[in-house]
Amino acid sequence: MENTFVLLPPSDPNALQNIQNCFSQPVYDMNSLNVTFFGNQCPFFPSIQQNYPNEALEFLKVIKYLSQLALNTSNILPQKIPLLKKMQNRYSVELTRKQVALLFLLSFFDVLPITFSKQLNTFKVSDTLRFGSGVQFEIGRFFLNYLKTIGKWLAENNPILEENIIFVRENINRNNFDFQILNNFNLCPVNFIKQGSLFYGNASYCVDFANKFIGGGIFKGGSVQEEILFATNPEATVAMLFMEEMDENDGIGIFNTIQYSLYSGYAQNLKFGGTSIYEFNSNIKRNRIIAIDADKDDKQLNNVDLNNYQRIINRDIYKAFAGFYLTSFEMGFEKSISTGNWGCGVYNGIFELKFLEQWIAASFAGVQRLDYYTFGKEEMQNAINCYEFIKNKFVTAANLYRSLMYYKLDAFNLINCLVNGQF
After folding, report:
1. Tens digit of pLDDT for each residue in 382-419?
2. In this structure, are strands 190-193 and 369-373 parallel, antiparallel, or unpaired?
3. Are 338 and 201 in contact (CB under 8 A)?
């Protein structure tokens, strides 16, 4: 890898020759794929053949079109892609849906050369295929369904493959955004939604509760919010190839992906739920993902001095703002965002506080509507009461921000004061 680029197969004759050799082999069944690409050491393919023969059959129907795509690598992919480094402002990469599918396909069959970097997650889709059962096997089924759909579109020369997918990162210079003095921003309206998945919402943008390394553990058995989002929208995983880890003021946008699969369950109960793309579905939704990583410090708020308290609060407000501000990257889309209990899972964030932080950030970012999925958490009732109390009090985003910064060092007491009308 050069300092500012990720090199791709067209820059490497040996890589192109390997792709040519592998994808020129005849394919008779899933076992022949296992032999050709994995030396008969990959449990995924025989397990699919045995347990889900219809899925295997549907994939085998389109493998020749996927092979033709791979054999045309030198004409489809560029020689290199810009490395989107942390702390860069509004740097982006645009790839066609076909180019993204080809990168994914090459990684799926483990013929995409990888240069490892401590600043990047590892884009190696084939790691998912080392299992014949369990969560990683289920994620492999998501990926197989994605490639099956791409194969069908290749067969019919579908123009959807020429659409662009945009990968962009935003870094916020805090000197340019002093929230204490930006008094002309009203608090945006919020819709609280108790049940359902924010993946299926009506907002233009969906928040990825991200790892600082985009994609998290998608290929390593991770199966919580980010990994499920990337399993159902596999095009997003390609960001791992060239998107460095996030700085505390960074947000990442991945725009125009498609959800190819349905799902059920969560964590170790995650299951592939079938395709979400049907031949009669002529109005496929394009998704716009905003990735922001939470911090682990919420539980320390009652035990720190004012400076550290403000540092912890500011970190997540500016982080959310960096992500939400990406709604201004494209024109023509409503600035509405689906989000929820960000950082309240394994990081044990405070539900009410995470709502306030995101509400403030969204308001400063000019978001027109925040759809907030509470997932039925009782702890969110305080946040809902707080919102109902504040929304008609002509409170500005800066006013709420200053109160969060100074009014109470104890975050729990602040929530109670706001709910009880002591604002």
Report:
1. 889 889 888 877 788 998 898 888 765 555 566 666 66
2. parallel
3. yes
